[in-house]
Amino acid sequence: MSQAASGDDRLTLELKHLLTSVEASGVALLPASNLELLQTVVEAAAQIFGAAAASICLLDDADQSLEFKVAFGAGRDEVLGMRIPLDRGIAGYVASTGQPIAISNVSQDVRFNQEFAQSTGYVPASILATPLMINDRVIGVMEVLDKIDAASFGMQDMELLGVFARQAALAIEQAQQMNGLAQVLVNGIDQLLKGDSAEGQTLLSEIADEALDHGQAEYQQAMALAGLLFEIGQAGEAEWRLCLDVLAGLRDYLRSRPRFGR
Amino acid sequence: MTPGDQSEEPQTRALPAWSSQFSPESLREIAALGPIGEIDRQWAWGGSRGEGVRVAVIDSGIEHDHPAIEGCVHGGTVVEVEEQASGKVRYVDDDPPTDIFGHGTACAAIIHAIAPAAELYSVRVIGRDLTGKALQFAGGIRWAIDQGMSIANMSLSTSRSEYYGLFHELADEAYFRNVMLVSAVNNIPAPSYPSLYSSVVSVAAHNGHDPFTYYYNPSPPVEFGAPGIDVEVAWLNKSTSVSTGNSFAAPHIAGIIALIRAKHPELTPFQVKTVLLACAANTRPSAGSPAT
Questions:
Q1: Collapsed DSSP state (helix, strand, coil) of residue B271
Q2: Do B243 and A103 touch (CB under 8 A)?
Q3: Averaging pLDDT over each range in A73-77, A185-189, B268-272, which range is the top one?
Q4: What is the helix, strand, coil percentage profile of chain B, to 5?
Q5: Contacts of A159 in chain B (CB under 8 A)
Q6: CB contact at 8 A, B249 and B181
Q7: What is the overall mean pLDDT for chain A?
Q8: Cβ-contact A153, A144 below 8 angstroms
Q9: Interface confidence (ipTM) of the complex
């Protein structure tokens, strides 16, 4: 394998390109299903708590802000996609401290409801907010707003919202693992082409198993292709070269082919 | 200062994490043995207003001109992450002190309502960036120790085990340097540091509203229960709010400690804890104590 791979970084690059594409499509696809699940969580939370609205915002590590990813009820359309800095509002406090908080009856306070009031005109009278945690790391905040049949959210609500928050965090964690898997694939193929073949084979089958477990068609296709290339590479230098030529020819043909509708 | 009403009973309601030991069904009566049974609230803090006691509020800052604080904030610092600095934090003067969330102001106002002559210091350790927040928090405790604070109120905690040692060391140093750390336990039932250490005074919320009604719990992890549910508190921009959480219970105990330390400055942290035990609403002098 090392013999075959030594002269051909191009294959590595091609595979990386392929798998990066898979990864990219995975990133695009996964959050969609993930967001649906989160949407279900906030809707269920709003209904169970008897709240006028509910939302989840997630921490963006890059710019240390919170972005509202899903929302339900009053102010929904306005709040979606909104970003708030970590040093503002109830959500900022909860993300900064990892502490849930219930607050109501705020007098004369604009900043209290800043994340909503500024763009939505919706000013809740009561808020219950709890952190979304993966292990001991805060990844976001879940809020329920305006308890309909009471002046404030109670401790029971705080505990129950914690249960919802764990479900939401779990969904997010799984999505992150899926995204991470694509990276593992890229790294795995890299090692496979550069390193010891037996170790590479083991790694490949492990990765394949994991991909199958996750049931992603794109990953399975990528793994089938990678497995095929690996097997051909094992046959020898000439066979490997032939395989590359065939694939390159196929690619060139596909590129030159007229595409209707474009 | 009139000793508070000890007759208030907690109501049956869902409680924050760690609060169940202060519910009526599980609250234990504590016997104060021997001379400890002689200590009462009148002796402990009767007539005290917390004069001269310096209390650091390690939180989101304090709004210095909030009417509920009545000008009792004597200084402030903002603890920021600085990779090259000692302890990886730097201290920026916060003059006059400000609050970014309202939470620190709420805690400060609770302390001030109980100990109106205590000097409050704003130590802001949160905001803007989550990176290194445990180090900022640790830096806040370090500041309180180095500045010779008598009490540090901490409504924050960390659950990250890699900081167990750092906070343990700080809590021990504070204890031996006569700084009392009053720590709210997390509202989430998970380990939180430094609230779990025996050298700090750990506090959870009970349902009552009388600021002087607090309970002692002899079984770890939480030693004291104080009001923290639907408490009317000061909030940002000179406002008030009704808030719930263990973090509003801790400043009640911090305020009472300020009263005790003003009246009995010679008491060390473990002696103050004993006085707190003796004066808890669920403590009774044991049979045979001089007070019985």
A1: helix
A2: yes
A3: B268-272
A4: 30, 25, 45
A5: 14, 17
A6: no
A7: 74
A8: yes
A9: 0.84
